[in-house]
Design goal:
Layout: E1 2-3, E2 13-28, H1 31-43, H2 48-72, E3 76-87, E4 91-104
């Protein structure tokens, strides 16, 4: 399935708009991860545990969004975006959302 942040992918024609789709993931950071991150934040620099957490959550949210689009009969999601927020002090929510569409394949070159 094609997933793009643009409205009109080059070479494709939108045949049908099926509606909004999304995928949501809520992840919790472990106590050990929070303690390690607290020490790392004192020294500065990237906190790799949190980077991995966010990357994994985004991938999972995209996968869920694609599943929802497929259930509608879409072959693409256009205008895909992410949103994220904190729930309490230990949980992160990540949402991937966009518009499910049916695209005509591009003509042969």
């Amino acid at each position: 399935m094609l997933v793009t942040t643009t409205e009109n992918p080059a070479g494709y024609r939108t045949q049908k708009v099926l509606g909004q789709v999304f995928g949501v993931v809520v992840r919790s950071r472990s106590l050990v991860g929070n303690i390690g991150a607290a020490f790392k934040s004192l020294a500065g620099g990237e906190i790799k545990q949190y980077t991995r957490l966010v990357e994994d959550a985004r991938r999972h949210a995209i996968d869920r969004m694609i599943e929802n689009a497929a259930l509608l009969g879409a072959n693409a999601v256009v205008m895909m975006r992410f949103d994220s927020s904190e729930i309490g002090q230990t949980m992160s929510e990540v949402a991937a959302y966009g518009t499910a569409v049916v695209l005509d394949p591009p003509p042969p070159a």
